[in-house]
Amino acid sequence: MPNIPTELARLKKEQLYRRRRVIDSATGIHASIDGQQMLSFCSNDYLGLAQHPDIIKAMQQGAQRWGAGSGASHLVSGHSSAHHALEEELADFLGRERVLLFSTGYMANLGVIAALCGRGDGVFEDRLNHASLLDGALLSQARLQRYPHNDTAALDNKLSQSTAPNQLIVTDGVFSMDGDIAPLPDLAATANKHNAWLMMDDAHGLGVLGKQGRGTLNHFNLGNADCPILMGTLGKAFGTFGAFIAGNEDLIEYLIQKARTYIYTTALPPAVAEATRASLKRVQHDEWRRERLHSLIRQFRQGAEQLGLDLMDTNTPIQPLLIGDSAQAMAMSQALQNRGILISAIRPPTVPDGTARLRISFSAEHTELHVRQLLDALETLA
Ligand SMILES: *Cc1c(COP(=O)(O)O)cnc(C)c1O
User: Fold this and answer.
1) Ligand 1 neighbour 130 (Cβ under 6 A)
2) What's the predicted TM-score (pTM) here?
3) Do 267 and 312 fall into the same domain?
4) Could you list the residue range(s) of the whole structural domain that residue 311 is in?
5) Model pLDDT for residues 129-143, shown as the tens digit of each residue
């Protein structure tokens, strides 16, 4: 057992203690905290769909038709025609044979990696991969090897030295705390060379990158064969909740038999599936949301460069400002909050030691004026 009081005291002392802010308004670019109106730059609702009236209506009608919950797991009696239709529509959207819905992205990643790999296999992961991907590898009991961020040569080296009969390479498409894009063409070529599988978690690319928001593979003009295992989440650009794995017929049938985080959990409420079907239409057809997002990102980067701020090399809606020290990142987040701007400080262990940062994220609901307000606040802090 850990010594709980000692550990809590250490976290406080090292500025690593985590506290939840209670938000008492709908999520979106405006948040009300303790009665104070804040302009928020920390949501993953990149396309601004979480509050879309069509999507809310689809969820209300879904609840009318299906009730509040699914009542069981997919394999017992929880798999409704709403879930099934969403799977088929997502598969069409992505040009994949099949899609399998999971209740969360965390569970999808645990489930798929542990179903595909076991003792004696090799899982190769980017150092900055999402925690759920690392946890999936640990759960699988395969040998986990982490390669330096986006370093395909180092990965190639590790694969050459590995004698594991099955090798799985796993990467984020867009890295959640850095906002940069994985070198998918190189990763696909490396996987091909070693006859390894490639899995990509596109939680932050889907809806944002590629034609009609089809994600990071489409952004690079890659095909399904380049990345046979695709994971996507529905709680970010889609604005709802849940996640999925997309792949070929055999992969999906295999996961239905073997993925324990699929089998032993309650299916999403069907109303959430109905809302996501409405959301998918907006993701595909509202090109203006992606255009707006990209113009806000350009405006922010130009302004921040003029202020001499330490930007990371990314053109995605995730625009972190590297601070380094956790206490300083917390102080800046608090100072911004005092000026009515909500931005989270991201600290270790979410990011490597000494790389605490302010994670700024943009939404298509933001306007030029909002970006101006953000830049003005950063200027007074700088
Ligand atoms: C958010 C996220 C997840 C987890 O998805 P949930 O549906 O929120 O559980 C997995 N991977 C990445 C890269 C994420 O950003």
Assistant:
1) yes
2) 0.96
3) no
4) 13-47+287-381
5) 999 999 999 999 999
